[in-house]
Every structure is written in structure tokens, then in C-alpha cells.
Amino acid sequence: MVPRIAWLAARAPRDPHRAWEGYWKDIRTTGAGGQVLWDSASDAEREQYAEALRAHLDTSLPVIDVGCGNGSFTRWLAGIFPEALGIDVSPSAIARAEAEAAGLANVSFAVVDATEPGAEVSPYPGGCNVFVRGVLHVLPPRSRAQLAANVRTSVRGGRVFLTETNFPGSSLEYVERLGAAPGYIPAGLKRAIAGLPRPGHFGATERGAAFPADQWQLLADGPAVIHTVPAETAESTPIPGYFAVLQPRKGV
Ligand SMILES: C[S@@+](CC[C@H](N)C(=O)[O-])C[C@H]1O[C@@H](n2cnc3c(N)ncnc32)[C@H](O)[C@@H]1O
């Protein structure tokens, strides 16, 4: 199994933006049973976030879903906040998100590289919240820090909610958890291994490095469970994760 995974991973484009666009361009089905590994459309996963969002974020402000993909969570957030904007580096992801959200009045999308130095991720001068799911763990440390810096200048009084996979074992144990076995790799997992940047851990240590304590106040954090759909069936696989709620320190 290891040589097969190494062979697949060697095919992934080295340029991460090209990799994401190549991935999204070929996606035909999403949601439970769809082709997107992390898009399980799981109510159980959303419910675990709803309480923390309502407790810590100002729900009268808009929210930006950074790295929104096909916008599953953007649409869900639009039921909690007055307005939800999904941004993603991949034009094909945004096209798909727009199609899936057709008819929803308070949802919009834009192509933005959230890791570009100085990128303006928010069109809201009156402040906004930021939601991030499953983006930081696929970025290298420098890009994580740049994303955090861009978000920091954008929220203007709002707060950040992030949730990321934080699998404690090795890469091999991770793919086994996602259903890989000798002679078999689930289709959704295979597509991700062969096309996307390699995921890493994202827990309290990585959060502290990207969102340094002298600039960010940690309001809450703890374990989360991320639901994935590696085998393109309606059955989801839970992966251990980490969530945090942060706000920029004033006057820094
Ligand atoms: C694992 S997916 C998660 C998608 C979505 N947040 C969800 O949970 O369904 C990571 C997403 O981040 C996007 N992404 C990666 N790098 C980015 C960047 N520099 N700026 C904006 N989006 C980025 C990818 O295109 C992809 O849609």
C-alpha cells in the first residue's frame, strides 16, 4: 500500500494553487456520497459548531468562509449570520459554490488567495466574522501565518472560528483511518492523494504559531470531529480535529 500511495502522491502538482484548481475542475458530485473527501454534509459535525458560533461570535455581523470550496458550510452559515461570503483560491470551486447556492439571497462568493501578502479578504468595512474549516492543515506554516495576518486586518471587531483535522497518528495511519487497505484506496481519498497538497496536523501548537498570543486572544478551543466521505458513499468517517475561537488583540 505504501508504494502505491507514494506513487499517487508524486503525481500531485507542486504548485498548490494549480493543484486546488485541478482538483475542483474535475469534481462532478458533492455532499454525502459525492466525490469531495471532506464534504460529508454532516448535521452532526455542524451541530457541534453551532453552539460555539452563537456563544462567541456576533451573529449580527456577516461571516466570511475562508477556503469555502463548494460552499457547503457557507450555505449553512447563511442560516446563522445575516450574510455569508465564501472565498476560495480556485475559480472552479467558486463556480461550483455559486451553482450550488443558486437562489440563496444572502450568500455570495469570490475568488481570493487568502495567503497572498496584503490580500483584502473582506468587503465589510463595519466588521465581520471569519470561519475556516479544513484549510490551515493543508497550508505550510508561512502561508498559515499570512492567512492569519490578512484575516486580522479584515475582521474589524469580529472574531475567527477555525476547525481543522488534527489526526494524531502517522500519514499511513491517517490513510488507513480513511479506508485505505492493501490493494484498495477509496476513490475520494485517491483523488485527494493524487491531486492535492499533503495535509499536516493542526492543533493548539500550530494555532499558536499562526495566531501568535501577542496578537490574538484565544477565547475557546478544544477537540472537534471532522466528518469525511472517503468512499463516495453516504457513510461518513469521523476524523479527530481541533477548533478554536480567536479575536485580534486591540492596539497591537
Ligand atoms: C479541504 S478544502 C475545505 C473546503 C471547505 N472549507 C469545506 O470544509 O468544505 C480546502 C479549501 O481551501 C482552498 N484553498 C487552499 N488554499 C487557499 C488559499 N490560499 N486561499 C483561499 N482558499 C484556499 C481550496 O481551494 C479548498 O477549497
TrEMBL record:
GO MF annotation list: methyltransferase activity
Span of domain Methyltransferase: 63-156
Example of a GO biological process term: methylation
Keyword entries, A-Z: Methyltransferase, Transferase
Top-level taxon in the UniProt lineage: Bacteria
Cited Pfam families: Methyltransf_25
Stored PANTHER family: TRANS-ACONITATE 2-METHYLTRANSFERASE, TRANS-ACONITATE 2-METHYLTRANSFERASE-RELATED
The protein's name in its UniProt record: Class I SAM-dependent methyltransferase
Lineage per the UniProt record: Bacteria, Bacillati, Actinomycetota, Actinomycetes, Micrococcales
